[in-house]
Write a structure and sequence with these properties.
Distance between the termini: 36 Å
Shape: elongated
Length: 215
């Protein structure tokens, strides 16, 4: 579609920056394009930030996958405790409310619920004398992890690992879709800039012609 603009023909590309009016002055069209470029730049920056964060998510999940492959499966409760700590460290780069972080935590919780057995740490009432509290704490520390048992087969461990791998693949798929959208926005932005450049060139030619006629 083309519009006559002060003796200059401006070709508008289809998309979010299509002018609402069928005919705009050069100055009005340039102002319109400036607004559209500002909006596009905001969307592009947001998309780039999302791509950067998705990369963090994939890196964190890759670390978790490495941890799971290293302990295949944990040989005892102490080993399982080490896995949880390492996974927690790998997730630190992600926000506390990150859905990927929550998904990984759900996997850990499911493993603990199904494959850890033993007596939990004793609950000490708040009004318990300090001397008694201290004695209970020392006894608990002395028994340590011996009161817990961890039992999980390699096949069961692989099922949990597959959940981590699936989460990583989901993040990658979403990032790939967002990348396509980002490339589309970048293309629209380039078209918009080219349109603005053409209009400015036509305006400059018109002004030069006016000056020449005056002379």
């Amino acid at each position: 579609m083309s519009h006559e603009v002060n003796n200059a023909t401006a070709t508008t590309a289809p998309g979010s920056f299509e002018p609402a009016s069928a005919s705009l002055s050069s100055e009005d069209l340039m102002m319109y394009l400036q607004v559209q470029l500002g909006s596009m730049d905001t969307e592009i920056q947001t998309s780039l930030a999302q791509q950067t964060y998705a990369l963090k998510q994939r890196e964190a999940l890759s670390k978790v996958e490495e941890i799971f492959n290293k302990h295949n499966p944990p040989k005892d409760y102490e080993d399982w405790t080490s896995v949880k700590k390492d996974v927690s460290d790998a997730m630190k780069e992600l926000a506390a409310d990150d859905p990927v972080r929550k998904q990984v935590q759900e996997v850990l919780n499911d493993i603990s619920q199904k494959h850890v057995s033993g007596a939990p740490a004793p609950q000490v009432p708040a009004k318990t004398p300090e001397a008694v509290k201290s004695a209970i704490q020392k006894k608990t520390e002395a028994t340590g992890n011996a009161q817990f048992k961890f039992s999980m087969t390699a096949d069961e461990w692989k099922i949990s690992l597959s959940s981590i791998q699936q989460a990583r693949e989901n993040v990658k798929s979403n990032a790939d879709l967002e990348m396509v959208q980002l490339q589309s926005m970048m293309s629209q932005r380039q078209t918009c800039i080219q349109l603005a450049t053409n209009i400015m060139s036509k305006m400059n030619q018109s002004y030069e012609a006016i000056v020449h006629n005056i002379k």
